[in-house]
Amino acid sequence: MRKYLEILKKCPLFVQIEEDQLLKMLSCLGAKVENFDKKYTVFFEGAPAKYIGIVLSGSVQISRVDYYGNRSILSMVGPSEVFAEAFACAEVASIPVTVTAWEPSEIMLIDCSHILHICENACAFHQQLIYNLMKDLAKKTILFHQRIEITSKRTTREKLLTYLTLQAKNTGKNHFEIPFDRQGLADYLEVERSGLSAEIGKMTREGLIYSKKNYFELL
């Protein structure tokens, strides 16, 4: 586990936990690391909601498919970031989303019950870990409400502009890269790809934006 220390120290779960404590913690929590090829499913929808995942390298995509087969991308998760913690903490019977490796990825998996229930060793770091977990969940709730703000807009243009202005606000710049290709952006905004591409073309001609692949600039 020592080779993953630098990336783990950036993980929100382990804020204010010293390096020597972190190594002991991972052993106490029974953390394990698994490798996933590109497009390989980490968690299938309907699988037991048991594990919290931490991306050590690569990235994963979290998506949902409705009854008619329409896919909606909920988020992309990169190195040092956490996923599936809300479902595991809620102790729901099964996970309602699919988690897929977007590229070759190393994922650390931790049984959530080892976090929520203090072990018999009464480790000193456990209280800090639970506090960090609650803070991470609160931030994810804010992001969830931002996504509702985006997808609740009536038109493709309104959804796209809301998303781009939020990205600009989060980065502090009027130019940035997004973690989606065109199809991924369409799935995230819950619109048709053809309609999205047409709208991007219109907004470019109108001088509102500049776009090239996943790079955008608000003009």
Describe this structure in words.
By secondary structure, this protein is an alpha+beta fold. It folds into two domains: 2-143, Jelly Rolls, CATH 2.60.120.10; 153-218, Arc Repressor Mutant, subunit A (Orthogonal Bundle), CATH 1.10.10. The chain contains eight helices and eleven strands. The chain has helices at 5-8, 19-29, 85-90, 113-116, 126-151, 156-171, 182-189, 193-205, and strands at 32-36, 41-43, 51-57, 60-65, 71-77, 82-83, 98-101, 105-111, 175-177, 209-212, 215-218. Strands 1-8-3-6 form a four-stranded antiparallel β-sheet. Helix 5 runs antiparallel to helix 6 (156-171).
Overall 3D form: elongated
Q: Mind telling me which CATH architecture of the largest domain this is?
A: Sandwich
What's the number of extended β-strand segments? 11
* Sheet with most strands: strand arrangement: 1-8-3-6
CATH class of the largest domain: Mainly Beta
Mean pLDDT: 89
Helix content: 40-55%
